[in-house]
Amino acid sequence: MTMLERLMKYVKVNIETGCWEWTGAKDSKGYGALTVRTNKKPKVISTHRLMWQEKVGQIPEELCVLHKCDRPCCINPDHLFIGTIADNSADMVAKGRSAKGVKSGRYTHPETNPVGERNGRAKITADDVVEIRRRYKPRVVTTKMLADEYGVSNQLISCILLRQNWKHVA
Questions:
Q1: C-alpha radius of gyration, the chain, whole number
Q2: Do residues 81 and 70 lie in contact, with contact meaning Cβ atoms separated by under 8 Å?
Q3: Rounded to an integer, what distance in angstroms lies between the CA atom of residue 102 and that of residue 157?
């Protein structure tokens, strides 16, 4: 059985949209997935990429196969196009599919946005923040002096004092 025959075996044509909907196995994001043997090793490859290779040709290594129809399960080559990751992001924004404001990940999944000491790049601790806020006295103990002492930027000290950073610390 050819690759095209394998792909078409699991296609249902949606008359309304013209999409060729993959009915076989899918990944967690809804993209069709097919196991293919490459160099005698099984590898799972997205079906829309396989269809592009079958109908159009090779995909340059740095490029992605994108959907005009925005349906991850669609493998209709007329609904696919080649682009970069930046092209994919621009397409998402242009079509209003990017999460903004309270729908974005930092609000819907705050546990994935580590703050304070849970952030692996933090140079100070919550105790340091309390001490910085306590010690700051304009023209006596300046932001520059505190920044030098704690080994951070003057801007970070200002943001801490204005409660723009480390907001969770009282």
A1: 26
A2: no
A3: 28
The pTM assigned to this predicted structure is 0.61
Query: Domain locations in the chain?
Result: 3-98, 114-161
Burial class (CB in 10 A: 0-12, 13-18, 19+), 10: middle
Strand partners, 46: 33
Task: For residue 108, give every residue at least 6 positions away whose Cβ sits within 8 Å of its Cβ, in sequence order, or none.
Answer: 99, 102
- Ramachandran region, residue 166 (left: φ > 0; alpha: ψ -120 to 50; beta: rest): left
pLDDT tens per residue across span 97-144: 888 877 777 778 877 778 888 888 899 999 999 999 999 999 999 999
Buried b (16+ CB within 10 A) or exposed e, 83-112: eeeeeeeebeeeeeeeeeeeeeeeeeeeee
Which parts of the chain register pLDDT below 50? none
Task: Say which residue the tokens 């997935």 belong to.
Answer: 33
Q: Which CATH class is domain 3-98?
A: alpha beta
How, if at all, do strands 80-83 and 64-67 pair?
antiparallel
Distances (CA, A) of 162 to 3, 57, 133: 61, 56, 9
